[in-house]
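Sanity check

After download, print the first record. It should look like this:
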Amino acid sequence: MKFPSNQNHSDGHFQDLMLHRIHDILLVASPYDAFILEEDGRLTEQILHEYLGMNLSYAPRVWQANTASYAMDLLSRRSVDLVIVMMRISDMDLITFGTQVKKLYKNKPIILLAFDESEIKQLPEDRDQFIDNVFVWTGNSSVFPAIIKYIEDSKNVKRDTRKGDVRSIIYIEDTPRYYSSILPLIYKETLFHTKQLIDKSLNDTQRLLHMRKRPKVLLAQDYEKAERYFKQYKNNVLGVISDIRFPKNDKLHPNAGILFAKYVHSVENTIPILLLSNEKEALELAREVTPNILNKNSSTLFSDLRDFIIYNFGFGDFIFRLPDGEEIGQVGNVEDLIEFFGDIPEESLNYHASKNHFSNWLAARGEFKLATQFRKLKGHNFKDIDERRNHHIGMIRNAQKTQRIGSVAEFRPKTKKSKANFLRIGTGSLGGKARGLAFANTYWREANLAEKYPKITFRVPKVAVVSTDEFDQFMEVNKLWETALSLNNNHIFFI
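Expected structure tokens:
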């Protein structure tokens, strides 16, 4: 018998995503620079703390080298995934060190971590020959996880988009000081909300795997790279966050962000775009392209940016509005969304559908296949509003039905209603009969038997299974093992 593949990522299997991970980092810095970063030797603790705060399941190990010669020795003996180097190295200048590393390890990423922009000005224009990028240390340890995720996303985006239909955010900024502060915030928000939106009925392993569905963040530092990202991933772009002034055709262009926003909307006018600048004239000009503008010098920059991400990328409650912006209701989950579809005014439904709000909201919850289906729908596909309502509800119901088939979820007393058709009570393995039912439950989904044989109903009854560990605990607490093991047959008499 040929068994179906279990790698259907659009239906929620994420084991095959994020294959490239940063596990070992080499920090090359003078003793003084290392001391500043470590704050009395706590650099690893800072990274670990930030990873836990960003809801990540692992933290990379940091190796330190005070000299270039020792760094080269470590590179020859250990499998290092990322090199972070400071400007001051006692026995070798940065350019020579970076050039040597690139010569021996062509694809190994090298990031320069500078203390201020005056150090960056010392670098030659062709710095991409010996380093991959520059970040600025502002005293906030969240820059380290941001650097790591930036490298991982650049390595994984192509494959994960193809395999898992994962979404991406394009962030355009050429000033290291700004993207060293803003990029960590984007990662923190996307990771936090991705975790918050994971189905609570899933077990711990499944929830960790679902974290791999988080949106990628693609940092571009000039118009051409941003354009390449958009052309390659335009069907999976959640939104664009962009500076207004950055290089275009190798020259600093005062309105490059506005031009890019116009280009994006000429291709897909539903993609949300946020434009940032510290120049009032540029911001006024940007209003003609998008209502979402922020002043970089604003005291509320980070909170306003956070609000933009939550609302426009689908992480918060879905807020139903009329075309003029008037709020008419909000929902927090898919079930409530279905209920609201029955009452939403026609103009509100058409407004949100035309802006791909439903698609982005569903994509933020890992419903990539369903999000893609919503994105493809246009108003002219339906003869009237009732047909559109029923079609939307039907698509979501079918997706929910498919999800319930094949899933084995943990029973959680605080969860009022589980979507899963198969519940496991406790940890440990399933019994033989339950294991067979669980296999059949999964197999029918993966083999798409319902689609192949529409006249036949395939169904496993809703099941709750007591796992072996839970059973053992019950026997132990109630002191039943001695009685059970002393019996010669299966006849038990209760007195």
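If your output differs, re-run the checksum step. Summary of this record's structure: The two ends are 50 Å apart (CA to CA).
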